[in-house]
Amino acid sequence: MRKPALYSPSRRGSGAQADAPAALTPASAAAVPLATPPGRLRRWRQGAARTAGSPRTLWAGMALLAALLAASVWQQTGPRALTQKDIDAAVLRTLTTQSIPSAAARAAEKIRPAVVRVMSYGKDKKGEEQEQGVGTGVVIVDKGIILTNLHVVQGAQTIKLVFSDGSESGATVTGVQAENDLAVLQAHTIPDDLIAATMRSTGDLMPGDHVVAVGFPFGIGPSVSHGVISGFGRAFKSPEGEQEIGNLIQFDAAANPGNSGGPLVTMEGEVVGVVTGILNPTSHRTFVGIGFAVPIESAASAAGLPPF
Questions:
Q1: CA 105: distance to chain centroid?
Q2: Is 121 part of a structural domain of the chain?
Q3: Which of 40, 47, 140, 148 is most buried, judged by most C-beta within 10 A?
Q4: What do you get for the CA distance between the two ends of the chain, in Å?
Q5: Is 284 among the residues known to form the active site?
Q6: The total number of structural domains that make up the chain
Q7: 8 A C-beta contact, residue 84 and residue 94
Q8: CATH number of the domain that 271 lies in?
Q9: pLDDT surpassing 60 at residue 213
Q10: Does the active-site annotation cover 226?
């Protein structure tokens, strides 16, 4: 049997037809939401209320708020400024965990580039060249001007130098101050990076001040010894000669044959004297605790440098 077509009633109608509900098509029925059963809605509201009121949720919310507040304050104030207590703690930590070179080691390292090995040569009876002495020198002008002891190079026919970088050069004696056992040398070949020593006056030095002697004792070196100034204005006469040298610095840093002509330096690495001799109560020529150096004021004047 054929079903009759259904039509929506006209709104312009009146009477019973106007008040009748409109017939729903399948499409319009799908667009209307289904009503939530009253019992299920009531259970969902009760669960949400229990979750919002649980202690765990409250504490989590408070922690989040505290974190946001701390971040905001840090951005406004910036990192905490260092205090003197922080600095002192960092310095103490460095001192207890790091190995710091001694003052003597730092002084020796500063003077090292200016220390030179000096070798003098003569001729034997057969006319062959032979070494007649080994001593030390110190560069006082970076143009290759070097101070050493006169007795190291006296009578030499040839003088050879070995610089701190290992390079070698011949040298010529350009000046002598015999009364102070000093000689001035000029190197023939100068290293590109030659560094001269820093010299300073002895006027404010006192007995007990620490000093370092650097040289080639018995040809070994450069060797470093550390001691103190024992006194000023000393006089010394070497066993080999009749000449007496006065106004010397006495020191107790170990020195031996080969140290002659080497620098005597302060803990700042500044030259205050040129080592010239050691006291030899016996014929063994070994150090007994008393060495002598020409003050740098006299030594510098041998090279024509102005006094301090």
A1: 13
A2: yes
A3: 148
A4: 137
A5: no
A6: 1
A7: no
A8: 2.40.10.120
A9: yes
A10: no
Q: Whole domain around residue 266: which residue ranges? A: 110-302
Show the tokens assigned to 308.
């301090």
Rounded distance, CA 282 to CA 278, Å? 11
Tens digit of each residue's pLDDT (9 = 90 or more) over 70-86: 666 555 555 667 788 88
pLDDT in tens, 249-259: 999 999 999 99
Average pLDDT estimate for 113-141: 93
Mean pLDDT value across residues 121-139: 91
pLDDT above 50: residue 4 = no
Cα 197 to the center of its chain, rounded Å: 20
DSSP state of 279: -
Does residue 75 sit within a domain?
no
pLDDT of 144 > 70? The answer is yes
Does some domain include residue 202? yes
Active-site annotation holder among 120, 238, 260, 298: 260
Catalytic hit among 151, 223, 230, 298? 151
Strands 182-187 and 115-123: unpaired
Please identify which of the residues 181, 223, 226, 298 carries the catalytic annotation.
181
Tell me whether residue 154 is exposed, middle or buried, using C-beta atoms within 10 angstroms of its C-beta: 0 to 12, 13 to 18, 19 or more: middle
Q: Check: CB of residue 14 under 8 Å from CB of residue 22.
A: no
Position 250 in a domain: yes
